[in-house]
Amino acid sequence: MGEQGEVTGGEVSDPRRRFAEECQSARELYPERKLNQDQLARKLRTSRSTISRVETCRGPIPPDLPPLLDQVFSTDGLFKRLYEEIVAQSFPAQYRRGVALEREAIVVRQWSPTVVPGLLQTADYARTLLRGGAPRASEEEIKASVAARMARQDILKGEAPPDVHLVLCESVIRRQIGSRDIMRGQLAALLTQGAKATVRIQVLPLDAEAHLFVDDGARFLTGPHHLTVVCVEGYRTVAIIDDPEHVREALRAYDGLTGEALSPRESARLIRGQMEALT
Questions:
Q1: How far is CA 219 from the centre of its chain?
Q2: How do residues 56-107 score in pLDDT, each as one tens digit?
Q3: pTM here?
Q4: Hey, which bits of 60-213 come out as E strands?
């Protein structure tokens, strides 16, 4: 979903304003005594300026802050839920449904012919892509977009993360994005993720046969009711396909890719070799 670079500006969303208002309200109605921004910052082990920016809707919310606010104020996940809404609305409208479906998915299958998908990108790799895709964006805009992309990865850190099946074109691991250090760090992150029981990463060799998605990236999102939709992405567009017949056709094509691709073990060996070549 805009893996190569989507930087957006515009007005602060309603969830962002509500996050700010809830933070200020919870601080001022703290049971023991009203907290000022300095006191709340000490409880959260952050700075007063960070609390001030959050409450005045200036700049991005640090991704580690919402769970800390829920802990301090005993708000049963309120700030985490609002933060997820903020992240979803930070993407252009045509991508938001995909973001929402991704958050609820129990299985994420993905084919990427060009770059490492956002769910598994490192911050440095994401920053390089975003800067390349929006050379006129301000540093603040790039920083906010990187934070939004990293926040998408929270679904992999919960108690019940989705199963992730990823097929990468071999060109993805051979194409150097950013410096050698950035690319080496991204390849190392793929190896770390691929070692998890819930993540399977395969590489499709360059000499593989042509297939349905040879030109486009595609994600297959299976929700809690075991219904699957297909998200096919292009330049500033995403098509969400939910017609059962078309979904079945797409899944058959994806199964063909996994059959043509190297095994996870062989893929890890190839990724590790490319990483070592960058030293």
A1: 13
A2: 998 778 888 999 999 999 999 899 888 878 876 766 565 677 878 898 999 9
A3: 0.72
A4: 107-112, 163-169, 199-204
Instruction: Give the Cα separation of 186 and 173 in Å (integer).
Output: 9
Contact status, residue 114 vs residue 216, Cβ threshold 8 Å: no
CA neighbours within 13 Å on the CB side: how many for 17? 4
Distance between CA atoms of residues 55 and 127, nearest Å = 26
Q: Which two tokens stand for residue 220?
A: 């297959």
Beginning with the edge strand found earlier in the chain, give each strand of the sheet holding 199-204 in spatial order.
199-204, 163-169, 107-112, 217-222, 228-234, 237-241
The Cα–Cα gap between 279 and 121 comes to: 20
Measured in whole angstroms, the distance separating CA 130 from the mean position of its chain's CA atoms is 13
pLDDT for residue 210 = 83
End-to-end CA distance of the chain: 31
Q: Which residues contact 22 (CB under 8 A, 6 or more apart)?
A: 75, 78, 79, 82
pLDDT band at 11 (very low <50, low <70, confident <90, very high): very low
Given a contact cutoff of 8 angstroms between Cβ atoms, the answer to whether 77 and 159 are in contact is no
pLDDT in tens, 145-163: 888 888 889 889 888 999 9
Rounded to the nearest 10 degrees, the angle between the axes of helix 14-28 and helix 48-55 is: 130
Closest by CA position to 112, among listed 168, 164, 173:
168
- Give the span between the Cα atoms of 146 and 128, in whole angstroms: 10
8 Å CB contact between 8 and 2: no
